[in-house]
Amino acid sequence: MPHPDALTIAGQTFTSRLMVGTGKYADLHVMRDAIDASGAQIVTVAIRRVELGAPGHDGLLDALDLDRLQLLPNTAGCRTPDEAVRVAKLARALTGVNWLKLEVIPDPRWLLPDPVGTLRAAEMLVGEGFTVLPYIQPDGVLARALERAGCATVMPLASPIGSGRGLRARELVKTVIDDATVPVVVDAGLGVPSDAAQALELGADAVLVNTALAEARDPVGMARAFRLGVEAGRAAYLAGRMPARDGASASSPTAGVPRLPDPEVPA
Amino acid sequence: MPHPDALTIAGQTFTSRLMVGTGKYADLHVMRDAIDASGAQIVTVAIRRVELGAPGHDGLLDALDLDRLQLLPNTAGCRTPDEAVRVAKLARALTGVNWLKLEVIPDPRWLLPDPVGTLRAAEMLVGEGFTVLPYIQPDGVLARALERAGCATVMPLASPIGSGRGLRARELVKTVIDDATVPVVVDAGLGVPSDAAQALELGADAVLVNTALAEARDPVGMARAFRLGVEAGRAAYLAGRMPARDGASASSPTAGVPRLPDPEVPA
Amino acid sequence: MPHPDALTIAGQTFTSRLMVGTGKYADLHVMRDAIDASGAQIVTVAIRRVELGAPGHDGLLDALDLDRLQLLPNTAGCRTPDEAVRVAKLARALTGVNWLKLEVIPDPRWLLPDPVGTLRAAEMLVGEGFTVLPYIQPDGVLARALERAGCATVMPLASPIGSGRGLRARELVKTVIDDATVPVVVDAGLGVPSDAAQALELGADAVLVNTALAEARDPVGMARAFRLGVEAGRAAYLAGRMPARDGASASSPTAGVPRLPDPEVPA
Amino acid sequence: MPHPDALTIAGQTFTSRLMVGTGKYADLHVMRDAIDASGAQIVTVAIRRVELGAPGHDGLLDALDLDRLQLLPNTAGCRTPDEAVRVAKLARALTGVNWLKLEVIPDPRWLLPDPVGTLRAAEMLVGEGFTVLPYIQPDGVLARALERAGCATVMPLASPIGSGRGLRARELVKTVIDDATVPVVVDAGLGVPSDAAQALELGADAVLVNTALAEARDPVGMARAFRLGVEAGRAAYLAGRMPARDGASASSPTAGVPRLPDPEVPA
Prior knowledge:
Chain A is α/β, with parallel strands linked by helices. Chain A has helices spanning 28-38, 47-52, 60-63, 81-95, 115-127, 140-148, 170-177, 193-202, 211-214, 219-239, and strands at 7-9, 12-14, 18-20, 42-46, 70-74, 99-102, 131-136, 155-156, 185-187, 206-209. Helix content of chain A is 38%, strand content 14%. The longest helix of chain A is centred in the C-terminal third of the chain and has 21 residues, at 219-239. At the C-D interface, α2, α4, α8, α9 and α10 of C face α2, α4, α8, α9 and α10 of D.
């Protein structure tokens, strides 16, 4: 029986709406346990660092249970569309997976993606048969262009990568969600489960986190916390929130209730 | 085996950190199902409205599974300490329960509690043997005074009752949590599970919600969502969040990673 | 001719809505120049520190142009109502001024005022003929009680003293402003002129700042900035702001405008 | 003598950092008075609506004192780069002014600009000798690309046009300001002077407002308020704000101050 609220990306369905990264963990055991606790079914890996044996990336692919997990190679570290396309092809050759989290990040300080370069790279990669999930700023017009180019999702940032500041550009993320025809995955900047829940409550289809787990005091406990937060936010979205009000509203309205006469009650 | 992270109030332990109200529901069946779905073990009831048969309160006590639930009578609708004390005694006589959520609310517009009247009533009720859980504004000095008076918890508001605006006075709620010697229960104004999660992440021991469930499109689904949100926030608090940063921080640091040479990869 | 928008406190009128403190300045010259630049007409001084010759307070009263300024002695450092009343009398004896900024602050960590003690001290001081301006948390019920006790204003905090975090408890400050019958002066926690402007836009009658000036890189420049910010906020309050909207609204609406035909324009 | 803190755009200097629009006013007299009160030296006009005689745009150019004001024609209503370029040329032919506020807005709902189309149009217009001020989302990477293309400023939005919600995407606007080599003008979404002050305090060089003035109850009073708010924010930026703190910090530190002995003061 199909899950009543599955997430479908490029024809594949997932019951988890939490995606996770693999960077910054103290060791691969902690990483694996955190991924297990998160319930994530999609896991992203920086291909350049795997290839180059960057610290913490050696043996990374072997540590992942790829029978159960959808691998999502990413192009972290790529500054131009050409570089991203080359690394994408390397990723496919190396892993046999044609899903790609596309990152074109020329900005060394804020690690922000390039809108024009990302669109160009996405067009090329879709043409090469990739399933492309591009990382973008919360720009609704760019998101529409990427959909038209054939991307499988759009992944707007909540706040700068690794900042843990949460859903700071809430109104702009909302413009990406509105009228989206592909799943919206909020990526980057989420620090605590309430941030993830907010994104889902707003109508995002999923979130991706990495630093919030890897840098928690207890990454495995935090992974479980995010799993619950994502489920909470999605359940709230489906249940339909109360209206927010400017004023107060009594939980137990008094309209029509006579004032109590001085009661004679036993002490 | 004791629960590893139980909440203890006045010597009683609870595994749930979500308390719920009973007002504003369309009917008692929905209320009961929502309470079940919330996993709440403490349920508050407005005694005056029960006594007076206010709309929606007739048969309310019978609808609650009091074998499983700790009843928490409240003094909603009381404007003065004397009135609150009289209703408290009525509550005890009526229910046999000596727990009391103390509300002294003289303000018809914002439904805000009276700090001086609440402290006076609390002192009287503690002297009468009640277990007192006072509803207050997020005032750390008043909270300390209520602790000294023997209250079992303090219950600061997040934003005005029924407003659903969330944890607006975050910094002030933090001053109540800091150095508290009794459990802090954030009460009033929470609209969505992320609001509840935020309170727990900040260090609150529990939350109480009513309108957010009763006025959701699907109260039972929202009750389940809040249950998950509270569990997420508590788990995150225990796991220790990552530091929030002003700037960005790469998930997969590039320090020490040589730039990739032009790779020859198969298309 | 009377100023068209004067602030009246206890029968005295002021054209400035910015009050300032005298603590933390590098030296008294900078303080005096900053006060001049601020345009403030009401200046608060910690009497205990003056009396005790605390660092930076020696000669402070002589440095103020008391012909032009309304002195507002305060009871900073007092932890109980009795202590505050004693210092108030000392202030009056020392300065000949019966205005008093009442601070009863038992909390060493957050420097938060005691609601119950503040009300008690206010009642005593009003009885002794003082013009009392009490420092409080943003508690609308307490504010009403202080008005009834005869206070000349209420002074709710924006965020903890010296934190510079701005108007964090905006909704609660609003509950103090609503229905107030005496001027509301937002005091403590304002860090930049936009914070002050926000308070005035919300309907506060005035603000008081100290640390934001004294700890600026250029206290005199910042004093001028706050003067402008307060004037901006007041002018906006009087002019009536546009409604905030969820969506967008074109500055130059297109409704009824035919689409332009391909224009033949000269290059 | 040159103004000590002038704003320079494309070699021209201005003493005002507040730019204004001309849409939505009840009539041209109110518009003119509001522009006067704002002190603005740069005024933007929707050329298509002028040309087409859209409601409120008839006679608009004649109503502006173009001896004193720098006219800034804009391409509001243009959905594609080609359309914007054509309207830009029309604007230059019609007004003799080669400054241009570039708007390429394909999105009918949120009125958000197209990053790719805006960059393409900017490149063409710079090549045609225009002084280009492009309206963009708060995207630091796009901003750098527009600088490299020869734009005279970048104009990131604070929140959607006409929403009056203020500086919602503060962190992202900051990424545009950081390292900018041309002036940054925050445009769209500012509702009250404190919003404008915040933008200047953050380091923006100027702001542009329209709806906030035109839809105020008193547009002329609000224009004066914004003028003051912008001056306040700029002055604060230059003066260097105090650090924001998590905790409190006494205005009049008690360190080293002996506790007052019981004073014997006259009543």
